Amino acid sequence: MSDHELLPKALIIGAGAGLSASFARALAKAGYGLHLTARNIDDLEPLAAETGAELHQIDGTDADGMVSLVTDLPGELRVACYNPSARQRGPITELDPETVRKAVEVTAYGAFLLGQAAARRMLEQDLQDDRRGTILFTGASAGVKGFPLSAPFAMGKFAQRGLAQSMARELHPKGIHVAWVNIDGAIRNPARAGYSDSADNPDSFLNPDAIAQEYMHLIQQDRSAWSNELTLRPWVETF
Questions:
Q1: Strand order of the sheet with strand 229-232?
Q2: Using an 8 Å Cβ cutoff, are 118 and 135 in contact?
Q3: What pLDDT score does 1 carry?
C-alpha cells in the first residue's frame, strides 16, 4: 500500500480555483490524502500537482458515479465536502422550468448524493476512535432568506440546509460531524473583475484562505461542542 493510501482521505466535490482550492491546500498541509472532483478536471492539474491530490471527473448529480467514487476511495474517508451550486436568475413568471429543475438538482440533489454516500462509507469504516468523519456543505445566505429574482438558488440552498440539519441530528450521535456553512457574501477572487478589495473598503470580500481555516476548525472541533451551522461574512456585509 502506498503512502498516499495510508493517509486519512478528504473528498471535495466541485473543486475549483477559489474556496475549494484554499480548502484543499489546508487539508494537504494537515496531512490528508486528497481526492478532488469536477466536471472538467483539466484546470485542476496545477492544484493536484501542488497538493498531491487525485482527480476524478464526475457530475455531482450522477447518482451511480457518486456511489462508485465514494465506495472505491482507498483508505479511511474522514472528510467529505460538497461545493457545487447553480444559479438561475429571473422573474418567477419567466423562469424556464427545466433550467430550474437542473439548478435545484445541482445545489440540493447532488448534496444529498454526496451526503448519503459519505455517511454510508463513514458508518461502515472500522476506525480506532469514535469520531468517524466530517461532512460539510458549502451554503449561502440564500438558504436563510430568499432574494428577489433568485427563486431557484433559494430553493436549492434551503433544501441543502434542511438536508444538513436532518443529517446532523441523525448522524452526530453516531460520530459523524455534519455542518452547513453559510457563506454570506462574495468571495475574493483577483482573477474576476469586481471581486477584489478596494483601498477604501478593505476586507470587503471573504478571503478564501480564511474560510478554509474555518472549515478546518469544524473538522477539528471537540465532539462535546460541535457546530451544525456556521455563518461567515465580511465585516461590511449587512444582515
A1: 54-57, 33-38, 9-13, 77-82, 133-140, 176-183, 229-232
A2: yes
A3: 46
On whether the CB atoms of residues 197 and 188 are closer than 8 A, the answer is yes
SS3 201: strand
Copy the grid coordinates of residue 147: 432574494
3-state helix, strand, coil in the chain (%, to 5): 45, 20, 35
Q: Which residue has the cell 461542542?
A: 225
State pLDDT tens for residues 169-181: 999 999 999 999 9
Question: What whole-number distance in Å separates Cα of residue 50 and Cα of residue 156?
Answer: 33
Q: Which three cell numbers stand for residue 96?
A: 424556464
What pTM does this model have?
A: 0.94
Dihedral over Cα of 84, 218, 123, 27: its sign: positive
